Amino acid sequence: MSTGRLRHLPVVDNNGKLVGMISIGDLVKDIISEQKFIIEQLEQYITGSH
Questions:
Q1: pTM of the predicted protein model
Q2: If 11 and its partner were Cys, which of 5, 20, 30, 37 is the partner (CB 3.0–4.6 Å)?
Q3: pLDDT tens digit string along 12-30?
Q4: What is the dihedral of CA 4, 10, 13, 17, to 10 degrees?
Q5: CA separation for the pair 12, 21 (Å, rounded)
Q6: Close Cβ partners of 15 (under 8 Å, ≥ 6 residues apart)
Q7: d(Cα 42, Cα 44) in Å, to the nearest integer?
Q8: What domain range is 34 assigned to?
């Protein structure tokens, strides 16, 4: 999306019907959330806390 300078992409079903749109902001939020979860898991592993 960044390379193509696209801010939004269509989401289509198997028949090609438009079912929604996804923005680069949606992707960034998801990546940040995933990274936060991984960091929390690693911190718990390192400190031995549950």
A1: 0.67
A2: 20
A3: 999 999 999 999 999 999 9
A4: -130
A5: 9
A6: none
A7: 5
A8: 24-50
